[in-house]
Write a structure and sequence with these properties.
Layout (H helix, E strand, L loop, with lengths): L1 E5 L3 H12 L3 E5 L12 E2 L1 H6 L11 E10 L2 E14 L2 H15 L2 E3 L5 E5 L2 E6 L2 E5 L1 E4 L19 E10 L5 E5 L4 E9 L2 E9 L3 H15 L7 E8 L3 H6 L3 E2 L2 E3 L15 H51 L1 E2 L2 E2 H11 L1 H12 L7 H19 L13
Helix pairs in contact: 1-3, 1-6, 7-8, 8-9
């Protein structure tokens, strides 16, 4: 069997690696190959614990053990990360993943697929240099998918803008800044030799997001001198879109951003790109071309898409909701500073071990304890009756 993988990012590269390792003829088509995708480039513990090669390699990376969280009307707090976050340049990360795919036996073609036509039980792909025939297609073209009849159908409501600057400099921590009336946030991610300073947001024009970011940079003393600007579109599916999300079809599967597989709250997509590429390859190898799509959809649902759909229901409440007469994001930062129990929850969210589906239950289970810790931290512990006096 010959499988064409359309796109050489993390999802396409790992799918091709898994297929080639099992003896399938996998061919990656990508006009850019390794390139600097506009994003932070963070790899969570959830990703590198499942794919240890992400940690155990010689590729340049930053190992980050703390992040500073800030929100309106709250003092910033430094959160120590029990499980470090790994931060790569996407050029380096993609290069490493493509190299692994080639070593496994995958063929890499630096070419853009201009069209795909169903021919019998297979496919005929059109490139500038001619045609290529394949038995099956894995779509890994990213959010800006030029093949409109494949992959998720993004609407304006199901997308998030991301933009920012690569700034010369060195830093060891991550900064996250929540903003008023924005479904999104600002980030400062340290990389090897520079920083990625960016903003992601939903429901607001890119020009307004850029203005917010540049105000923040001026306030923080982050100069644009010598910086390069970037912008990108991220999938950020609304809850109804998850029900109709088009991740498979006749003779094809979509992975990563092309399937809309991005966290609707954090915008994180690298883990889901890697995992979906892996699951697509598993489905093809175990079920064959005819049944791969149905198996893949079930595996996605069992593995993480159910939780991402749940997260889409929480997103608006997280960024626009209120709790105890204040914004939820401000209370998150305050509780992180004042309550060890709540700090544990935030650490688990950062490392990816806390699913959204169980988050509300865990927060309410710990609420009384967190409130007691906060009262004590503010110096009012003497007002709480001791157990032996109750």
């Amino acid at each position: 069997m010959k499988v064409a993988v359309l796109g050489g990012g993390p999802s396409g590269a790992i799918a091709a690696e898994k297929l080639a390792s099992a003896g399938v003829q996998a061919v990656i088509f990508d006009e850019k190959l390794a390139w600097e995708k506009p994003c932070g480039g963070g790899i969570t513990w959830k990703a590198y614990s499942q794919y240890p090669f992400l940690c155990d390699n010689a590729t340049p990376k930053k190992i980050v053990t703390e992040t500073v969280l800030a929100a309106p009307k709250s003092q910033p707090v430094t959160l120590a990360l029990d499980q470090p976050l790994l931060i790569y340049s996407r050029y380096d990360l993609n290069g490493m993943l493509l190299d692994r795919a080639q070593k496994a036996g995958a063929q890499v073609e630096k070419a853009r697929v201009l069209g795909a036509e169903r021919v019998g039980a297979g496919w005929r792909l059109k490139t500038k240099s001619g045609h290529f025939d394949a038995d099956y297609c894995i779509l890994a073209t990213g959010a800006r998918n030029p093949l409109r009849s494949f992959g998720t159908e993004l609407t304006a409501a199901d997308a998030m803008s991301a933009l920012g600057y690569y700034i010369p400099g060195n830093r060891d921590r991550i900064d996250i800044q929540f903003l008023p009336k924005l479904e999104g946030y600002i980030w400062v991610f340290p990389r090897c030799g520079h920083m990625s300073v960016g903003i992601c947001g939903k429901g607001e024009p890119a020009s307004a997001l850029r203005a917010r970011l540049e105000r923040y940079m001026a306030e923080q003393g982050l100069s644009k001198e010598g910086a390069s600007f970037y912008s990108h579109l991220l999938p950020c599916l609304e809850t109804p879109a998850w029900k109709r999300n088009r991740v498979t079809g006749d003779g094809w599967m979509a992975v990563g951003d092309a399937a809309g597989l991005v966290d609707p709250i954090t915008g994180e997509g690298i883990y889901y790109a890697l995992r979906s590429g892996d699951l697509a390859a598993q489905s093809f190898l175990t079920e064959g071309a005819e049944m791969a799509g149905a198996a893949y959809r079930k595996l996605l649902r069992r593995d993480f898409t159910g939780d991402l759909e749940f997260g889409s229901r929480l997103a608006h409440r997280v960024f626009h909701g209120r709790f105890l007469w204040g914004a939820v994001t401000s209370r998150m930062v305050q509780f992180t500073r004042l309550s060890p129990k709540f700090r544990e929850v935030m650490q688990d969210l950062f490392e990816g071990s806390q699913p959204y589906a169980g988050l509300k239950k865990r927060l309410f289970r710990n609420l009384n304890c967190s409130l007691v810790e906060i009262v004590c931290s503010l110096g009012f512990g003497r007002l709480i009756p001791r157990r032996d006096t109750v």
